[in-house]
Design brief:
alpha/beta, about 280 residues, eight-stranded mixed sheet, Rossmann fold, 8 helices
């Protein structure tokens, strides 16, 4: 009797192919010394307090990647340890994975987590007025979508790290008329592409200062620059990090915090500048 293959198994197979090509791998799990787990409503988050122990520390929230269907909040690499040593509270957020949730629900959950942290920052030792949101790959797309639509309203700084999903219709156009295989399962509802594209909301409201970083992965510089340009045209303060000669899609995430200077330095400078403003 023939076995039925589920959509999730097909997606895992597709992602596995990308893994073998070096396009998408979980980052090395190097974590900070202490961690607390909190339920923010729809899901959980890991909270790593600033090593200084000082109250009212700035907060950096991270959304993991994984093609919207894989990955977990534990995949923080060296970021949790590094940024807590730099005086930040660091939080890594879970969201319900596809196919149990679509991109809109996932973005709303990230927004819910940001808002929960904002409401509880005082008791956690964080400053509710200094919250930054960062995502990589699918997490970059979802963090951008949550921030630009207003779902994550307390965000004072946004770090967009390497996705091609800023503008889904444009991505399909430059990919021969259809989305790349890694994107297609999560975005099969073509009528929702505009609604699920962060670029659709660049002029919706006053957006926070944004750092857009990209690697040397196929076409990532083109779509990232296009997104950054759209933000800038609509009045957003935009910083750019061109990592195409130094990083691939994996290493632009995994090496953040594990090396001094380069991307880590660009992120530190951006955060220090933006979050120090009154």
């Amino acid at each position: 009797m023939a076995m039925k293959i589920t959509r999730r198994e097909i997606l895992k197979s597709t992602v596995a192919g990308s893994l073998s090509a070096g396009l998408l791998l979980p980052s090395t799990q190097v974590q900070a010394a202490s961690k607390r787990v909190y339920d923010y409503g729809s899901n959980n988050l890991d909270w790593y307090p600033a090593r200084s122990g000082a109250g009212n520390a700035p907060i950096l929230i991270f959304a993991h990647g994984g093609a919207w269907a894989l990955g977990n909040r534990g995949q923080v690499g060296a970021k949790a340890r590094h940024f807590t040593e730099q005086g930040y509270n660091f939080a890594s957020v879970s969201y319900t994975l596809f196919p149990r949730a679509n991109a809109q629900t996932q973005a709303l959950q990230i927004g819910e987590a940001v808002n929960w942290i904002h409401a509880n920052a005082g008791r956690l030792g964080g400053d509710p007025n200094r919250i930054a949101l960062m995502g990589h790959s699918a997490g970059c797309h979802l963090s951008s979508l949550a921030t630009l639509t207003g779902a994550a309203y307390p965000v004072k700084a946004l770090i967009c790290n390497d996705t091609r999903a800023y503008d889904l219709p444009f991505l399909a156009k430059v990919s021969g008329g259809s989305l790349p295989a890694l994107y297609a399962p999560a975005f099969r509802r073509k009528k929702m592409w505009d609604a699920w594209s962060p670029i659709s909301y660049t002029g919706l409201k006053q957006q926070p200062p944004t750092l857009v970083a990209w690697s040397g992965g196929h076409g990532r510089d083109k779509v990232s620059k296009r997104f950054a340009d759209a933000l800038e045209r609509d009045g957003t303060e935009v910083h750019r990090y061109d990592g195409k000669r130094r990083y691939n899609h994996l290493s632009i995430n995994s090496r953040m915090g594990s090396e001094r200077g380069k991307l880590t330095g660009a992120v530190e400078t951006f955060l220090s500048d933006v979050l120090s403003r009154s």
